[in-house]
Amino acid sequence: MADYIYLLENRLSQAQQYALTTLRDLVRPKGLTLFLTGGAVRDLTGGAPVRDLDVTVQGNALSLRKEIEKFASIDGEYDLAQSLYVTFPGGVRVEVSSASTLTFPKPGKPVYAPASILDDLRRRDFTANSMAISLNDGSYGLLMDPLNGVADIENRELRLVSNYGFIEDPIRLLRAIRLGARLGWHMEERTQARYNTAKEEGYISALSPWERGYELEEIAHEEDPIRAMRMLEAEGWMKELAPNWGSAKANQAALSELQAKNGELQQQGILAYSATIAFPLITAKMSPKEVEALQKLFPRQGFVAQIAAVEGHVKEFQNKLTGKEAAAPSAAWKLFHSSDPETVLALYFLGKSAAVQNKYKAFLTEWPTAKQRLPYQVMTEMRITPDLPVYHELLDELFFELMDNKLGTIEELKAYLEPYSPPAPPPVVNLRRARAKKEAKAPRGKSKKALAAAEAAAAAEAAEPMSLPNEVGDVPVGSAPERDGGEPGPAKKSIAKEKVAPVKVATKAAAPVVVAAKKAAPAKSAPVKATPAKPKQAAPAKKAAPAKKVIVVKAPPVKKAVAKKVVAKAPAKKAPAKKSTKR
């Protein structure tokens, strides 16, 4: 369903969409239902260009005649089948018919009766033409394919709906050849066998005059009528249709030129039906009486009137195109796209003056290059994006300004775009609070007490005054342990560095009193044990970290009391001991 909605919106031209929208609006107040049927659905499904539209109404289509005449022209009608032949603006051909069943008491003698849309699809000629798309609210785009026509479209086959299709309605013999010439399809095996049987039995003789004229007009509406006539001639059907008309009566060179110019206009969005212009070419070698007799057979006499009116429309359009109103390139461009496509094609093919040909040459080659100069980057820098409501209209205006060479520099472009540039957006406010700085975490392995003790020791040592270096003789007697032989020796001490580290006290010989030097914390010295033998001379040696210069620190006097054992607290971190130096 969604796929066919997409096809309806993108594969149909704007003129065709307008025709369908108008018909939907006309049938809705009457309570009728509308369906797109026949060749239009086949071409949408198979990817072929949609040439004309067939719509079916569940009800009497003739009751819509007055309403349709307000928006389109009625080219003809077929009372027996309750069908109208309509031409909408833009040259869109639409056949509006009533849903009905079809029976044949005799070959070529149809009897119509009102029916539902599904019954209508089951009585058609080929399965590929027996599909419908709903155009009604609530089911828009719904595909109905009761005979599996999609499979035959994929296989590019023409399959009869009824086994007696060629016998009941001989016009299907002609239609099978014409569709095969246009689409390049072949008949399904059983259908081909029934076709051969009907051809041998001569069922074509039951063809009614109305059906003969309908098929002749359809040949004139073919994009390549010469190809269709040649294939019909090969089957012997042209003699049954019109003995005095065939491919030999056509101006094939002029017809090829017309088809080439029609293709050039289609590249610029001018979609013209060339039938009204091509008809004089495919009957170029026929006498006027023969042409007149042929035209009288057409069921759409409005088509005959359109052929006669081509010349007058061409002159009127030529005067507008070469006049002052279309002097500017943009004005001429708008005139090309607002005029009837068939008239534009007719003047391109029939107009021989230099002024006309120069206009067409510029329209096809020069003016379209202005689209390549559209300043998309500049528009983006000025915040003019597709989100703006006037964006597409602005592109069209820019296209016309560039086409007329009114905007040649960047400054002119910016000045032209400035009124359309929206104001700059306010700066973005960050509502998130800044993250607070996290405090440095204590390294692993150190406790809070050890860190506090280290900080206190560092503060105490920083507050302790440092003494100047003295000579060795200034050291008082008894401040250091005695050497061997009872003579006291000087104690070696070093100046504390910025980073305090413990120092070992070395002695040459073993003394009776052993001073146990323990590792002190970087900032706090640990007391030593006092010997009971010489309490007067024993004093705790204050140990400092090694320093660059050797100094002597006077030891404080020690009271003559029995020294108590003091357990020194071991430092929590032993890493500073590795950095000690020996003097």
Please provide a written account of the structure:
This protein has 583 residues and is α+β, with helices and mostly antiparallel strands. Among the domains are: 1-155, Beta Polymerase, domain 2 (2-Layer Sandwich), CATH 3.30.460.10; 374-419, no CATH class; 493-502 and 514-555 and 564-583, no CATH class. It is built from 23 helices and eleven strands. The chain has helices spanning 2-10, 14-27, 39-46, 65-69, 117-121, 149-155, 165-168, 171-183, 189-201, 209-220, 225-235, 238-241, 252-266, 275-282, 288-296, 301-321, 329-338, 341-350, 354-366, 376-381, 391-403, 410-417, 448-463; strands spanning 34-37, 53-57, 73-78, 83-88, 92-98, 100-106, 109-114, 132-134, 143-144, 157-158, 186-187. The strands form three sheets. The chain has a seven-stranded mixed sheet with strand order 3-4-5-2-1-8-9. Strands 6-7 form a two-stranded antiparallel sheet. A two-stranded parallel sheet has the order 10-11. A hairpin with a 3-residue loop joins strand 4 (83-88) and strand 5. Mean pLDDT is 82; it is low at 467-555, 558-570 and 577-583.
